[in-house]
Amino acid sequence: MSNDEEIPVKATNAPIFQTITEPKELRNVVENDIYLLGGQVAILCQFAHPALAKGSYKHSSFATRIPQRLRNTARFLNAAVCGTPEEKNAIFSVIHKYHARVKGDDYDANDPELHKWTAATLFFGIILVRETFFGKMSDAEMEVLLKESAIFGTSLRMPPEMWPATLAEFWAYWDHNIATLEVTDMARKLSRDLMYPINLPLSVAASMPLARIITVNWLPERLAQEYDLQPTPASRVAYQAFVASTRIMYPWIPQSIKQRQHDIYMEDLRKAVRRIKQTGHWMGA
Which positions fall inside the ER-bound oxygenase mpaB/mpaB'/Rubber oxygenase catalytic domain (predicted)? Predict the structure, then answer.
């Protein structure tokens, strides 16, 4: 998604599709901050699609606005999974209006195939975190999350019938895209901006070395080569140590700490909705 805030954008009342099923299990995911660890790998997989990379490159000051983009993405995710109908309508209306201006000869942010791929990368990131830190999932558990993850696409106006009906269908779609999508020079530039951002608050900048270690160890092998982000022996050791220690410590962490960032994002979401109701856009929220 390409959601800069430099130009005020009025909300639109264009409808979204009804999703396949309510995101009951996804709420447990979104409410726990550990799942934010899958964000960078999901975004890099998104940029592997040339149209998504081109839209972001040409229509977003990505390099200097990483915190704002992350906040806007959090607004979308939390509205989709945890939001009230009023919050969904407000947030989605602004996002859809932004997307309306992101288009060119060979890309269009309102292309439902791009929404499908975006949703697929988010589901992939969730599965990575879940199985890395909490153990192998059963097919039945993963099937539930697959169906619920359709909401990431339908909220962006992907028709629900486009979403894979089974895990086999999803992984066939995923493997085909990972094997064939072209990682362009624009995508490589965006990947450097994402992995080595500037103008970050100190608290966020301090977490970036760990985020890079996790991301390079999670990227699909072909994309890691295309982006030149292969893990080194040292990063593999650091990653394994982090995973092992997190598996031990995580159950003992108070829930209030596990979802601290989520609570911050939800308060930001409510402020954005109030701003949209007052002005029609979320600038200043």
Answer: 30-247
DSSP letters, 42-84, are HHHHHHTSHHHHHHHHHH--TTT-HHHHHHHHHHHHHHHHH--
Local structure of 199: helix, strand or coil: coil
For residue 15 the two structure tokens come to 């409808």
Each residue of 255-264: pLDDT tens digit?
999 999 999 9
The per-residue pLDDT for range 82-94, each reduced to its tens digit, is: 999 999 999 998 9
Instruction: Identify the bridge partners of residue 108 per DSSP, sorted by sequence position.
Output: 103
Tell me if 269 sits within 8 A of 94, measured CB to CB.
Answer: no
pLDDT tens for 14-68 read 456 788 889 999 999 999 999 999 999 999 999 999 999 999 888 776 666 777 8
Q: H or E segment at 104?
A: strand 103-104
Q: What letter does residue 103 receive in the DSSP assignment? A: E
Q: What is the DSSP secondary-structure string of 184-211? A: -HHHHHHHHHHHS-SS--HHHHTTHHHH
- Residue in the block written with tokens 């989605």: 92
Q: Maximum CA pair distance of the chain?
A: 53
